[in-house]
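Q: For a teaching session next week I want to show students how multiple molecules come together into a single three-dimensional assembly. I've collected the sequence lines for a complex. Could you give me the predicted structure tokens for the whole thing so I can convert them for display?
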Amino acid sequence: MMSKKIILAGNPNVGKSTVFNALTGLKQHTGNWSGKTVELASGSFSFGENTYEIYDLPGTYSVISNSPEERIARDYVCFSDSDLTVVVADATCLERNLNLVLQIIEMTDKVMLCVNLIDEAETNGIYVDTEKLSELLGIPVTGICAKRRRDILKLKSAIAKASEKTHNFAVKTVYPSEIESAVSEMSEYIQGCDKTLSAHLCRFIAVKLLDNRELSEDLIHKYINDSKSRKYISDKAENIKSALAETGIPAVCIRDEIVESIIHLASSVSEKCVIKNDERSRDRSRKIDKYLTSKVFGIPIILLFLGGILWLTICGANYPSKLLSSAFTMFGTLLHQWLAKTELPPFWCNMLIDGVYGTTAWVTAVMLPPMAIFFPLFTLLEDFGILPRIAFNLDRCFKRANSCGKQALTMCMGLGCNAVGVAGCRIISAPGERFAAILTNTFMPCNGRFGMLTTLSAIFIGGCFSGAMSSAVSAGFVLLLIIIGSFVTLTLTYILTRFVFKSKSGTFALELPPYRKPQLIKILTRSLLDRTVLILGRAISVAAPAGAVIWLMSNLNINGSSILSICTSFLNPFGLLMGLDGAILLAFILALPANEIVLPIILMCYLSSTQMVDCSSVSVLSNILTDNGWTTLTAVNVMLFSLLHFPCATTLKTIKAETGSIKLTLIAFVLPTICGIFTCIVSNFIYKFFMIF
Amino acid sequence: MDKTIGCEKPLNALPLNAGGYILSLNVNESIKRRLMDFGFTAGNFVIPLYKSPLGDPVAYGVMGGIIALRDEVAERILVSAHKPERRRMFL
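A: Of course. Below is the structure for the complete assembly, covering every listed component.
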């Protein structure tokens, strides 16, 4: 009974995480575009008598370059003493995938290849001869479709077998003759220092020494033990490099030659093992792309998709929200009755039910239905492969703002939940652009703010019209708010990247992977469990204590007035300046934990009620607001401030985690708030100005 | 489609669906690494497939995959109609 350590490597977007999940049974979110998984996940499975621990490396295109993900992958493969490295490749795009395979073969002789997406390849008329591939590469090769249970079993068995031995006959990448002689010479010196090192390892260290990489230093530290030998090797390497430079290959060209040799070997192996039956190969994806990226249809289709998701979310969530709301209210009354029978004093009963339960119930009723619709739909787009096309289509706009198309995607994620959007900014590689995207993500109204925006828009904007016009106009206004949010995002991104982070435009090189059939059931379970439940859980954990605090503020009196009303009057002057009032400002401040509770707090202040009001009735809500001095202007300013104000506590926490900087988190708090305050004051003045005429 | 190109041209000058073989990459070290990782190396065949509706970037087919590159990068990649000889001798 042994435990073996297995590493999973591969290009981004080859279904590596699907393979990982299938092998380990762990739930981990995947998406059909590169840059999604950047943390190291681990899990295990048993086969036969042994346990296999698997580590899922970030997807990388090579292990020779120097991005953070590639360094992590490289270090794991070279230094973690694993029993086997399994490289996962995409059968529909094998040629480029072999580049990484060959690089890893050079690093370690404990490798096997798993060719995934065999089913997609077959649909596209591509056939991969895994036996020939195994023969040419000199390592075990297994072809699978990660969705099929029997294929996963086949893979487990192959892993078990391959981890038992090393492979001495793995293919050697042959370099141009001058470099080959240099490598052999270097290899001999290294072998001379330590006879126990394998020939494979000596060759690898020799190549890296010529390659000019910091990796070579780490390797020498690990494998050559005394400092005299280390100095000897380094000196010899310098001599050999100068000799090469004299024959016309300067140091900077050595790596180019090495990389080119690997790529040419990859092409020639692929040519012999991959048979493309007909031009069907790329037709399906290409046809879809021709429409999605066409001048005429491209951008409208994107707007249609995103608009469609938003519309379905809002409409679809309406009825369930109302149902949940009434159900919770009924349950609340029951709770009152039950608790009344216990010995618990009324103070505690009311605080627990009206404060804690009431707030939590409100948040759930408002948040759960839209999220249960938005996230599965968005995940569907992700899995299908549409997201990279959106980044592709919109890149030019973002280039003007000194950012890249990928920011469009983080903004879309922000529409679901800003914390998810901020975490998603990892896909943007240039640091300046990434920070700008993180700091501006909150300008996209998340699901939590949507409820209030649509309600207020329906009452105060749509309410000015009647019938079908009413809902069209109120929807249009919400769309306008999103456009304003996007405009502010782009402007601030430009300012931040140009003047604050001073970053030059990063290279935008994006892979457009083939469209894949999304697995509907998996999407439903994954997005419901991973995202919806998780985010809801987080929101409840902040809403519950917040509810208690707000109830206390409302019911504890100092000198005859509640703390709530004292704060409200204090903030009132400033609120009026912004076209709002004290209650509204206080509500926004207290809603730092979760945006959903802004409206309940406003109502609590107005009604001076000591309990949550059931507002499943829109007309009741409308009356309460207008009775307290709300006009259309007030509603517009509230919506603008909701769009442009500090992010919620969870998002701030995520920002701190992603940027690692308290300074940036503070800016993330202050910047949107200043925008919001400024916008509201301006809008207030413009309105009052026109009112004079 | 006209597939004949004369001597060297920058990649962004190729019309859609007309490909060429890469001769050289005139970019700084880190961008070169990225590009070579994707398969943009001397000797490889690359073909522009479609443009973004706003004109930039352009999606190129290379080594079996599709990679989108911005104009200013594609401008610095030289291609020609004929496959270049490998510059070095092999044993």
